[in-house]
Design brief:
By secondary structure, the chain is α+β, with helices and mostly antiparallel strands. It has five helices and 14 strands. It has a seven-stranded antiparallel sheet. A five-stranded antiparallel sheet has the order 1-13-12-11-14. A two-stranded parallel sheet has the order 2-10. The longest helix has 13 residues. It is globular and about 75 Å long.
């Protein structure tokens, strides 16, 4: 399962931004002007011959796909009760004899940094980006990378909807290559699709398949109307694009 339907994702993003709210954001967002999305609802040409290569479509459309990196600080579990257990000390001795960062007793909880890598899609020329909520949920720091040569931007979580697993990011940039959104109601089972992501910051990847089913419900999400595809979805592609053969 790659994504919710294109039109539903766009509507969620538009609702978050148009209302000027920041679901889960650290600070209230100011009311933003209406977001102008590039939408093309024209049905694809199903009577044409299959192309020898999708390279021109990928080259044009993949410019809107980005790498999303997020990190958050988490507290490790306090092991003091375990260390004070006589049986533990009998077999393993007294831990933390002046160990670095533990105050000499080995019982102080420590913090660590968890990192998450995913993908995203630029949906406006002035820096709005769609991704999956689970890529940035709870993040203290979010960065976006894309372009040749690669550029890195600090991103702000403008809004997110955990139940739809959609989040909207904003970076300070203009003149970006925004994706053109297709109309998912025009999709048919058997249509060619391309899954594009930028996993782990190593560059874009593209896989190829067809629409295997529409309107799938798997009883795992609050809102379900999935497009099922047999295009391989690689780790790190969460938040990436599922495109039709016209690059929408």
């Amino acid at each position: 399962m790659k994504s919710k339907k294109f039109s539903q994702v766009a509507m969620v993003a538009f609702s978050i931004l148009g209302a000027g709210i920041a679901l889960g954001a650290k600070e209230p967002a100011a009311v933003s002007p209406p977001l102008h999305l590039q939408i093309d609802a024209t049905p694809i040409n199903r009577d044409g011959s299959l192309p020898v290569s999708y390279a021109p479509v990928v080259k044009r459309a993949a410019a809107s796909v980005v790498n999303v990196y997020s990190s958050k600080k988490v507290q490790q579990r306090d092991m003091s009760q375990l260390f004070n257990d006589p049986n533990f000390r009998r077999f393993f001795g007294q831990p933390g004899q002046g160990g670095e960062g533990d105050g000499g007793n080995g019982h102080h909880p420590r913090s660590s940094v968890e990192q998450s890598l995913g993908s995203g899609v630029i949906i406006s020329t002035d820096g709005y980006i769609l991704t999956n909520n689970h890529v940035v949920e709870g993040a203290d720091d979010v960065k976006v990378k894309f372009g040749q040569p690669e550029r890195e931007y600090k991103a702000t979580i403008v809004g997110r909807d955990p139940e739809a697993d959609v989040a909207v990011l904003k970076i300070s940039a203009t003149g970006l290559a925004a994706a053109t959104l297709g109309d998912s109601d025009q999709l048919q089972i058997g249509d060619t699709v391309l899954a594009v992501g930028d996993p782990f910051g190593v560059g874009r990847t593209v896989t190829h398949g067809i629409v295997s089913a529409l309107g799938r419900n798997i009883n795992m999400e609050a809102y379900e109307d999935f497009i099922q595809t047999d295009a391989p979805i690689n780790p790190g592609n969460s938040g990436g694009a599922l495109m039709d053969s016209s690059g929408r």
